């Protein structure tokens, strides 16, 4: 049985990934690593052990890894794209100095490591339509710079030291549990909150701007399946394109309006978010993930919309 540490366990992805991992591997075998000020609560706190584990503190990570005999680390600590533009040095410290800590500790303690990359690892001169697995990666955001470096450093530790690093490039992740904070794709989460509250939504992204998105259950499945994949089949490692849906604001608006006919959306484009969005793929080619570890998403836009509109009200309209 795996012994897993999730760093960033109370964040957007971590809060749900920790619970999904506990369901599979057992509550006691999955440690929720958090930072002061972002303590776990409720089910996350009660379903297994938790430890303060700041990715920038190598001593603390080492102690947790040794105390719990950790053999797999999910390193989810990061600043999202818009926040990282305002705090580039902190984004580097968390994303890359933190990753260095994790990889060194993994090397010393023989741990496998998952550190996600993103659609943000691509840039304006990347082919935008069916973006290939191996292509130009010259992002112009600090978030993207840290994600390309994450991919390179993770591959380096695999090739040089045999550390079992693997990951995916996440599209914008949409969920009805923990909201994202400061990403370019956040509008595709926010829009559901407005629809459910019966309020008009002001969209910060221009009509016609395509971005890859994924529903959280598929994002969790990808994170778990890649770490369970047969290593002899993996030609790539850091990190796999995964795709499940790609849409522009007017398409998600129409998908919601089908179930909420009175829902209204207007545009007030945010120039920073728009320039980031335009530099990212319209739609990625995920055939390597499909061929090398049988990646296959479950949710399309309509299935996700039905699920969001069913579950979100139960949480936010109490
Ligand atoms: N969701 C991220 C962002 O918008 C991209 O991976 O920053």
Structural summary, described in words:
There is one protein chain. By secondary structure, the protein is an alpha/beta fold. 44% of the residues lie in helices and 16% in strands. The chain has twelve helices and 16 strands. Strands 3-2-1-4-5-8 form a six-stranded parallel sheet, sandwiched between helices. Helix 2 links the parallel strand 2 (30-34) and strand 3. It is globular, with a radius of gyration of 19 Å. The mean pLDDT is 97. Serine binds at residues 80-81, 118-120, 143, 170, 172, 183-185.
Strand order of the largest sheet: 3-2-1-4-5-8
Which consecutive residue ranges, at least 5 long each, have pLDDT under 50?
none
Distance from first to last alpha carbon: 39 Å
Q: Give the helix tally.
A: 12
Class of secondary structure makeup: alpha/beta
Q: What share of residues is helical? A: 40-55%
Radius of gyration: 19 Å
Shape, per Cα inertia axes? globular
Compressed to H and E, one letter per element, the order equals EHEHEHEHHEEEHEEEHEEHEEHEHEHH
Give a list of the ligands: serine
Largest sheet: 6 strands, parallel
* Average pLDDT, all residues: 97
Key structural traits:
single chain, 318 residues, alpha/beta, six-stranded parallel sheet, three-stranded parallel sheet, 16 strands, binds serine
């Amino acid at each position: 049985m795996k012994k897993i540490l999730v760093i960033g366990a109370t964040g957007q992805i971590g809060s749900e990934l920790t619970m999904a991992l506990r369901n599979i591997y057992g509550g006691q075998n999955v440690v929720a690593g958090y930072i002061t000020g972002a303590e776990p609560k409720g089910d996350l706190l009660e379903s297994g052990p938790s430890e303060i584990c700041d990715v920038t503190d190598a001593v603390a990570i080492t102690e947790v890894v040794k105390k719990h005999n950790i053999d797999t680390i999910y390193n989810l600590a990061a600043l999202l794209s818009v926040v990282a533009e305002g705090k580039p040095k902190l984004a580097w410290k968390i994303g890359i100095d933190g990753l260095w800590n994790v990889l060194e500790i993994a090397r010393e303690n023989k741990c496998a490591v998952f550190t996600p990359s993103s659609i943000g690892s691509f840039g304006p001169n990347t082919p935008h339509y069916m973006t290939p697995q191996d292509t130009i990666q010259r992002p112009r955001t600090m978030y993207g710079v840290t994600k390309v470096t994450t991919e390179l450093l993770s591959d380096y530790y695999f090739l040089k030291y045999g550390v079992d690093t693997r990951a995916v490039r996440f599209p914008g992740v949409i969920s009805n549990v923990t909201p994202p904070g400061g990403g370019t794709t956040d509008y595709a989460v926010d829009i559901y909150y407005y629809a459910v509250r019966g309020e008009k939504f002001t969209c910060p992204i221009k009509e016609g701007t395509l971005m890859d998105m994924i529903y959280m259950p598929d994002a969790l499945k990808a994170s778990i399946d890649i770490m369970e994949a047969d290593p002899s089949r993996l030609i790539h490692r850091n990190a796999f394109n995964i795709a499940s849906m790609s849409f522009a604001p007017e398409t998600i608006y129409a998908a919601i309006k089908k179930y909420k006919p009175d829902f209204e959306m207007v545009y007030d484009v945010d120039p920073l978010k728009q320039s980031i969005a335009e530099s990212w793929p319209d739609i990625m080619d995920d055939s390597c993930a499909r061929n090398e570890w049988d990646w296959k998403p479950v949710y399309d836009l309509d299935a996700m919309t039905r699920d969001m509109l069913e579950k979100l009200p139960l949480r936010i309209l109490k």
